[in-house]
Amino acid sequence: MFIKRIKRAAVTTMAATVLAGGLGLVTAGSAAAGVDGPECRSDGVKAACIEMGSPVSASARTNFASASCTVMIILWDETTGQGWPWSLRCGVGPKPYGGYMTTTQEGHTYHTEVRIFWDGGSGYDSISSASRTARGNAG
Question: pLDDT tens digits, residue range 33-55?
């Protein structure tokens, strides 16, 4: 009976730890907006970030258990439909991917899209940042 209690306590503790860790992943950066930094949208394992300024900057973060993928980051000018893509191999664990920057045009709206292409798969998973409009002397 004592052994069953120990097992039950261990299972309960492990479940609580996993649940707490999972919630931390989901909430960390899900709508992080900094006054002096990028604004990101995240689903817990990938994030798309945009930082308005002159120039505008697009970046990404991932937190994968496998490096069997490619990350494509695209900075979109929604006003013209022009996109500036670049791709990098995925990393294992928390991994930031440096930003692409371009000079903004006042009144143009921009966002970052992150696409994950898994090796041997078809299609991709994606997430996009919020859209932001360049104002004033943005460039």
Answer: 334 568 999 999 999 999 998 78
**How would you class 71 by CB atoms within 10 Å of its CB: exposed for 0-12, middle for 13-18, buried for 19 or more?**
buried
pLDDT in tens, 82-137: 999 999 999 999 999 987 788 888 899 999 999 999 999 889 999 999 999 998 65
Q: Where are the extended beta strands (E) located within the chain? A: 39-42, 46-51, 56-64, 69-77, 82-89, 93-102, 109-118, 125-128, 132-133
Domains and CATH numbers, the chain: 31-133 (2.60.40)
